[in-house]
Amino acid sequence: GQQLNQSPQSMFIQEGEDVSMNCTSSSIFNTWLWYKQDPGEGPVLLIALYKAGELTSNGRLTAQFGITRKDSFLNISASIPSDVGIYFCAGQLWAQLSFGAGTTVTVRA
Amino acid sequence: DGGITQSPKYLFRKEGQNVTLSCEQNLNHDAMYWYRQDPGQGLRLIYYSQIVNDFQKGDIAEGYSVSREKKESFPLTVTSAQKNPTAFYLCASSIDGSDASYEQYFGPGTRLTVT
Fold first, then answer.
1. Left (φ > 0), alpha (ψ -120 to 50) or beta: where does A15 sit?
2. Which tens digit of pLDDT belongs to each residue from A61-74?
3. Cα of A18 vs its chain's centroid, Å
4. If you average pLDDT over residues A2-26, what whole number do you get?
5. Mutation test of the interface with chain B: which of A31, A49, A99, A103, choosing the one with the most B Cβ atoms within 10 A?
6. CA-nearest residue of chain B to A86?
7. Alpha carbon of B68: minimum distance to chain A alpha carbons (Å)
8. Is residue A95 pLDDT above 90, yes or no?
9. Most buried among A2, A20, B48, B109, using CB within 10 Å?
10. pLDDT mean over A94-102
11. DSSP, res B73
């Protein structure tokens, strides 16, 4: 698979905050996907992006497909405690997905 | 309810034994995938199948084998040749494996521990 760089590696959120994470690659992709994984469970698809420049929302989540087709970002607005988990980006080229290493979101005490 | 099931949730084996992980889907999806997840890493593709009786190696196929005799089933065997088999294994499926269908849906995973 292709190499995806996801950042930040981890972040702390306070309830009500807006948070942002992104994914970059040296390769272009045809599709970007964002998943959330709770501990010990399988990833759940949050948002799928199909065209360069596309901006898509799913509730408090907003994601964009970068115009160069080499990057994508995910924003979470007005964080709530159940937003904690690991968020993965995935890029699609041909029949396979390549995954980033994930951003771990934790609640700040 | 449509979905992907993986069993068992936890599996323990002794080193040197082969073990088979189950994956079943009732989504009528053509394509199925097996991934391995290690702490702090992204998902790595082991094998995938776009159609019954056909499958291809992913990035880390060594020490693993699969079969696809039925559309709804894609079992993964972790053989004794796999050097570091302890990991969380995830099965996924998509409508088909062509460029026209990109969204993969995941099962709940099987955590395999080999001692």
1. beta
2. 999 999 999 999 99
3. 14
4. 93
5. A99
6. B40
7. 17
8. no
9. B48
10. 88
11. B
CB A51 within 8 A of CB A92: no
B97 contacts chain A (CB < 8 A): yes
Tokens of A61: 């989540």
Q: Classify B74 as helix, strand or coil.
A: coil
**B91: DSSP letter:** E
Q: Judging by DSSP bridges, how do beta strands A103-107 and A10-13 pair with one another?
A: parallel
Q: Does A99 touch chain B (CB under 8 A)?
A: yes
Q: Which residue of A has its CA nearest to B38?
A: A101
Q: ∠ at Cα A30 (A70, B68), nearest 5°? A: 125
Q: What amino acid occupies position A45?
A: L
Strand partners, A96: A93
Counting one residue from chain A and one from chain B, the pairs whose CB atoms sit within 8 A come to: 63
Does residue B8 have a cis peptide bond before it, meaning omega lies within 30 degrees of 0?
Answer: yes
Q: Is the pLDDT of residue A94 over 80?
A: no
